[in-house]
């Protein structure tokens, strides 16, 4: 096969580079071959070869996944799509971009900005993750409160099937009910039913003004109640985030700031539109019990107000090895969820920081452990993670809101969906990938 | 089986009532049995029976479908879910409703209103169609420009499979990437992979104010260009509609109004929010070339301005038997699409009216024919419909935006998606319904 490919390697150092992602998953061994695809035809060649020989094929983009979806494993072929990074077409009047999967998410947003448009999904990894990876995990982000997740921005996909056939899913229009929605099936499927080699994406006009509202509360319960109140005003914030006191303390230690003394919880909201004066007033009024509220439409001030959220993850990661969890609950149960996350920390003797996309009930409890990257996790951390997943299900939620299943949550997904749906997942996987070569052991 | 069911019939008059829908599909013959389900357990009983005996099972709600999705046929069992019409739970703080499939769409919206919420999808049939039917077709509506289609409001589904098993798809949270998105696969699938017996739906806070902006233009091209301009302002209208001159004439004949003399095209926009003064000004400014613009936030005036859109379909139906088509194109090609629809009318000697959801590029060309309901269609009308579908594909669109495939568009969907994807649709259908009993011959 390699005589048909322009860029491949079996060198140990190159293989080590593509063997894993940012999930901290245990080492699954080195792949046998890495192919950096230069064209869709090359992707088809590799898929046909892998199917013919029954070799596991693991597709990767930026390698920024947090659930192990791109962890390769001994004997596998890694298909690196980061070189397929062209923005093929921007159609400003339709608010549409057609891109290759290796485009960096922030680069698409920048290209859209030149036409007064933006690409709404903004996972924390925008600067390093690819559109293909965002599609594989159905990535969310801060602006999801108003603009939804990656699936809400996907209008059509070009997908190479396990047997090498290239299919086009979705009409590319905003509305389409012609046949089954296989496009949505592929979004969030971690490359297990097919390999995304092209995407037609929805852009949106950039709002004229964005206001940032930052508030501190004496307790996390009060902040969570305020978030519920904001959601019920009729104003749709584009961003609605909560950060707990422990995380504020970590930011203070990293940045030398004094955020934690201002409260035990931080709430950040943004509203965008044509003139958001009235909306800002409504949101401010809903922040009952806040000890401090600041609002601004000045980008410099907004950036300053955003810092307490933007620094949350780096500050936590500065304290130790961070296991980034990702549970979703009904928004009204956010306060209860955070309270019980803290109880899990106490019961297991672990350190757990929490920040949350309060607008859509998606929490990131971060378990910090005293263990080197790649080393086995302490039993207490594993126990804590299991308790967090059980908590998500007990509250009527999901064990993953936006990071995906990967290697880390197989068992929990089966438990969440139940044996019948798990069986359907595998039966559909067999239809699309009879030889089971596409990213085996992930997603389902 | 019938000893396990509370309400069933083999009476000819009752069977005739449930044999078809509002699509005007040719008569496919009377079913053998109609079961009006009283419980999920009864639905499971019927599914098991149909699978065991290889009998076609056609599920129906309000019978308001426009594509033949609920047309039964000789020898089939009709499963009528209109009696499963309870709103099981409203959770205002989460903006969630849990409903049975037979709930009338407008009734859910009214129940939500009591909590300051609304149910966004608003197909023209809201007063008679059911949530189950809306899910089966992924119904759209006027407010889709801002709030999307039915799928965007579905958070989880309870589905009875062909073999009678009950499964729950989706987590019910706003974000969930645990396993494949089978929930989206079921939405718009016309009951062919399973029977929806329950839905967890997203509600939204009712906006404080809605402004209506109505404009007339000397030509449809100008109106379509104005719609593209509005979409690019950064203001997101909740409603953005266009009505052609012929339709205005039909409304005048029905209502005794004088709309057509005001222009050859009517554009209707709504913006909703907290204070939409600035948005209205931006939209008005984008309506370049309008001969007349009126705006109001007064509900009575809004209702009057809406009349030219609200009466479009009844006015056309008053002129003869109406074949309601439903193509989607990229929004920037709307003017071209309408111009070419008119060319199709000329080439085929047919009468075609057009109105469109300009916000999302979804056109409804309405072919009016001189034939009794149920009678065979004139060859010219069939030819015109075929040319419209070909036009949709040529413009990079879809042969159905929101009405579905049903019986009427089988051939065209296969052409739109191509043989490989068509093959996948059928393979997935076989996984979920091996005996092929669920609404056979529909959707895929």
TrEMBL record, chains A, B:
In Swiss-Prot or TrEMBL terms, this protein is called: FAD-binding protein
Task: Name the keywords, alphabetized.
Answer: FAD, Flavoprotein, Oxidoreductase
Q: Does the keyword Zinc-finger apply?
A: no
List the cofactors. Answer: FAD
Could you tell me the superkingdom of the organism this chain comes from? Bacteria
Which protein family is it in? Answer: Belongs to the FAD-binding oxidoreductase/transferase type 4 family.
Gene Ontology terms for molecular function: FAD binding; oxidoreductase activity
* Alphabetical list of Pfam families matching this protein: FAD-oxidase_C, FAD_binding_4
Outline the extent of the FAD-binding PCMH-type domain: 27-206
């Amino acid at each position: 096969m390699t005589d048909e490919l322009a860029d491949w390697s079996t060198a140990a150092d190159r293989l080590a580079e593509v063997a894993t992602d940012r999930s901290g998953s245990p080492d699954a061994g080195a792949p046998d071959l890495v192919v950096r695809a230069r064209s869709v035809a090359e992707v088809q060649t590799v898929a046909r070869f892998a199917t013919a020989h029954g070799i596991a094929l693991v597709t990767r983009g930026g390698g920024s996944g947090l659930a192990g979806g791109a962890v390769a494993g001994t004997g596998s072929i890694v298909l690196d799509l980061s070189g397929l990074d062209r923005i093929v077409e921007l159609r400003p009047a339709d608010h549409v971009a057609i891109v290759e999967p290796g485009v960096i998410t922030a680069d698409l947003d920048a290209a859209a900005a030149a036409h007064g448009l933006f690409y709404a999904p903004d996972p924390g990894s925008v600067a390093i993750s690819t559109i293909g990876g965002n599609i594989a995990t159905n990535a969310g982000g801060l602006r999801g409160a108003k603009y939804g997740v990656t699936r809400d921005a996907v209008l059509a996909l070009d997908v190479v099937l396990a047997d090498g056939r290239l299919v086009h899913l979705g009409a590319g229009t905003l509305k389409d009910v012609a046949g089954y929605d296989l496009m949505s099936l592929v979004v969030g499927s971690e490359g297990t039913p097919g390999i995304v080699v092209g995407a037609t994406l929805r852009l949106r006009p950039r709002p004229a003004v964005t206001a940032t509202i930052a508030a501190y509360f004496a307790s996390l319960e009060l902040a969570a109640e305020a978030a519920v109140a904001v959601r019920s005003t009729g104003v749709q914030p584009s961003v609605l985030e909560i950060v707990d006191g422990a995380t504020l303390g970590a930011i203070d230690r990293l940045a030398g700031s004094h955020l934690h003394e201002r409260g035990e919880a931080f709430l950040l909201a943004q509203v965008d539109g044509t003139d958001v004066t009235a909306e800002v007033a409504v949101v401010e009024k809903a922040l009952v019990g806040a000890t401090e509220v600041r609002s601004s439409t000045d980008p410099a001030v907004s950036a300053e107000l955003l810092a307490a959220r933007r620094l949350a993850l780096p500050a936590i990661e500065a304290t130790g090895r961070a296991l980034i969890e990702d549970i979703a609950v009904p928004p009204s149960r956010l306060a209860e969820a955070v309270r019980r996350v803290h109880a899990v920390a106490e019961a297991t003797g672990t350190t757990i920081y929490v920040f949350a996309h309060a607008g859509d009930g998606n929490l990131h409890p971060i378990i910090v452990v005293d263990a080197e990257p790649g080393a086995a996790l302490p039993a207490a951390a594993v126990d804590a993670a299991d308790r967090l997943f059980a908590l998500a299900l007990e509250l009527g939620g999901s064990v993953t809101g936006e990071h995906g299943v990967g290697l880390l949550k197989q068992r929990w997904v089966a438990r969440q969906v139940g044996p019948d749906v798990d069986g359907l997942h595998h039966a559909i996987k067999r239809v699309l990938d009879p030889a089971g070569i596409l990213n085996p052991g992930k997603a389902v």
